[in-house]
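Minutes, project huddle
Topic: does the predicted pose make sense with zinc ion bound?
PN asked that the exact inputs be recorded in the minutes so nobody has to dig through chat later. Recorded below.
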Amino acid sequence: MGRKRCAACGDGFTQRRNVPSQQYCSKSECQRERRRRWRKEKLSQDADYRANQAAAQRRWHERHPDYWGRYRQSHPEYTARNREQQCARNRRRGARRPSPAGIAKMDAYEAKKPVSSGTYRLIPVRGPGIAKMDMYIVKMQVLCEA
Ligand SMILES: [Zn+2]
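Predicted holo structure (tokens), as shared on screen:
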């Protein structure tokens, strides 16, 4: 059997004799990519498959209602990435559907100097002279840059 080029990584590989249509090499990440593409194609083409997958996910979620909450707690980088992607989607969507935090975001949008995450002194605006009496040290995290 001849040499072929892997559809995922592009490396050459020797085709298995019993799989004439083989397009991916045997590396585990390429096999994972093959299954991922197969599933994506299947989901876009096959309404029954799509419905079955959705139902299975729903059933699984009913058995594990707190899975995602725990997952997010133990994977802050996942949560941060999701937040960034949601922010990007919100930006593309524009101001048509403001989120609950829409008002705050509008303010940030119009601010000339962007605020960065960090520790700040928070001093309530009252009369002069008493301002320093109640000062707070606060940590702020920028969730979304508009
Ligand atoms: Zn490969």
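Observations noted during the meeting:
- The first strand starts at residue 3 and ends at 5.
- Helices lie at 28-45, 47-63, 67-74, 76-93, 102-110.
No decisions taken; revisit at the next huddle.
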